[in-house]
Amino acid sequence: MNVALPALQTSLNATIADVQWVVEARAAVDAPREKLAAIESSNPGIRAAVAEAFLAGYRVVQVTVVGLAVLGARTSALLIQNRDIKRA
Asked: Can you spell out the DSSP letters for 17-29?
């Protein structure tokens, strides 16, 4: 956030008040993280474990999405190739 806000301000010629929505949006996204994991704790170790679990789950989703995209592209390529063979 410390890097993004000045860059956003510069590129949009905005003031801090103009980009306050970015800070509020980030807070809204981060707030329910512990509740999603059904854990509310002030213990730094538990909070770190929840954050790591959240990231691990996010990574699994991203790898799955990439795999599906590659599979879709490969399937499309095979279908196009088969269509070209049938035309010849």
From this structure: TTTHHHHHHHHHH
